[in-house]
Specification:
126 residues, single chain
């Protein structure tokens, strides 16, 4: 079992930055591929980014590539999402998720993930 708790969301102006954190319980955090997803009101949950268990490989949605950066600290059982150059269309609830699937191929599929956090709201004003 893995429990995930996101933090760091908030209100920011367009062009600003935020860093989201996702703290995981359990001693097996380093075995999980971690992902970030987001869901805007009335829309489906969309993939944002994923990172391999070692942190050596990352994968991004086209809409955030070059602006967002995912990272992890296995010693702290935490995964991060640094979000720069934020746009109003980035407004959503952001969720972190964990899966034992090692391959990043397919990590953009929400159904692959076994554990989810409760989400943190990010609002970008224009």
């Amino acid at each position: 079992q893995v429990q995930l708790v996101e933090s760091g969301g908030g209100l920011v102006q367009a062009g600003g930055s935020l860093r989201l954190s996702c703290a995981a319980s359990g001693r097996t955090f380093s075995t999980y591929t971690m992902g970030w997803f987001r869901q805007a009101p009335g829309k489906e949950r969309d993939f944002v980014a994923a990172i391999s268990w070692s942190g050596g490989y990352t994968y991004y949605a086209k809409s955030v590539k070059g602006r967002f950066a995912i990272s992890r600290d296995n010693a702290k059982n935490t995964v991060y999402l640094q979000m720069n150059s934020l746009k109003p269309e980035d407004t959503a609830v952001y969720y972190c998720a964990a899966t034992l699937h090692r391959a990043l191929l397919g990590s953009d599929y929400a159904g692959r993930y076994d554990y989810w956090g409760q989400g943190t709201q990010v609002t970008v004003s224009s």
